[in-house]
Amino acid sequence: MASIIIHKASSEDWEIIQHLGIQTFTETFAKDNSEEAMKKYLEESFNAEKLKAELSNKESHFFIAWEEDNPVGYLKVNTGSTQTELQDETSLEIERIYVKQSHHGKKVGQLLYDKALEIAQHLNKSCLWLGVWEENLRALNFYRKNGFIEFDKHIFRLGDEEQTDLMMKKVLD
């Protein structure tokens, strides 16, 4: 495997993020959800206007993992008012670490997580937090391995369906 390079995404990268988001979300969740719910969620979450707005927001940061010229995953973190729940000035939300299935087990997710940790430290945040579907055992194990603990639950809407996300946090030194 070629080495993985992480680069900050710009607003011009919206199509790369869109493609990665749709592909990785489908690979991870399509088998456990209805086609209708998946279609609605993907249209709402990865449409061009929404992604362009998110990429131009100064409180959200996107990073793409590249293997040579091939984008294989991405990270989205949020500060301030862009955080989906806590909106705590001392915390950084990891909203997405999405990696292509072809690159699972190849440390791409760890590199993206390490970038999130680096950003949190650079911004002097005292806490990282995220929400993860209670049935996504791969992700739950990954975050637990990286020192996250559960502190609450919230409802995640996938189309018209409600699912339970476990909210997890890691207090930083």
UniProtKB/TrEMBL annotation:
Single GO term (MF): acyltransferase activity, transferring groups other than amino-acyl groups
Name of the protein this chain belongs to: Spermine/spermidine N-acetyltransferase
PROSITE patterns given in the database record: GNAT (PS51186)
Stretches assigned to the N-acetyltransferase domain: 4-173
Keyword Acyltransferase attributed: yes
UniProt cross-references to InterPro entries, sorted A to Z: Acyl_CoA_acyltransferase, GNAT_dom, N-term/lysine_N-AcTrnsfr
Entry's transmembrane regions: none
Alphabetized UniProt keyword annotations: Acyltransferase, Transferase
Entry keyword annotation includes Ribonucleoprotein: no
Gene3D superfamilies the record matches: 3.40.630.30
